[in-house]
Design brief:
Shape: globular
Order of helices and strands: HEEEEHH
Strand content: 15-25%
Low-confidence stretches: none
Number of strands: 4
Helix content: 40-55%
Number of domains: 1
Distance between the termini: 43 Å
Number of helices: 3
Length: 128
């Protein structure tokens, strides 16, 4: 089961990489993170969150097939999206007696993901 899950994660990562590199005109960059282990999600829950940004006008998270829009490209503009993803994780059954899911923990993890990606986008824009 772990091998199948690992293979699935690799396929997802490659898919995201291919989609984000498909059209250089929009210069949107995406990065994904699996929240399943961090928030003790059941194995049947797809807990991969993807953050995408063009570094200039738009940014958003994709989680469980839904897009959660930010109101800008700064991480601080994503509070509503982070709250919605946290609620979706809890609703999906993440957390247990051993490790409960707190929306603030989700926000911290996804904010770090967004900050890493935005720094990368800004660095790349300096060299392009």
């Amino acid at each position: 089961m772990k091998k199948l899950r690992f293979l699935f994660l690799i396929i997802m990562a490659l898919s995201v990489a291919l989609v984000s590199c498909e059209d250089d005109d929009d210069k949107e960059t995406c990065d994904s993170e699996d929240l399943g282990d961090d928030f003790n999600c059941p194995v049947n829950v797809d807990a991969i969150a993807t953050f995408c940004s063009d570094g200039e006008n738009a940014s958003y998270y994709t989680f469980n097939g839904n897009d959660y829009m930010c109101t800008g490209v700064d991480v601080s503009t994503c509070d509503n999206a982070l709250n919605q993803i946290g609620a979706a994780l809890i609703e999906a059954g993440c957390g247990s007696k051993k490790k409960s899911v707190d929306i603030e923990d989700v926000k911290v993890e996804l904010t770090a993901l967004a900050e890493r990606l935005l720094a990368e986008v800004r660095t790349e824009s300096l060299y392009n």
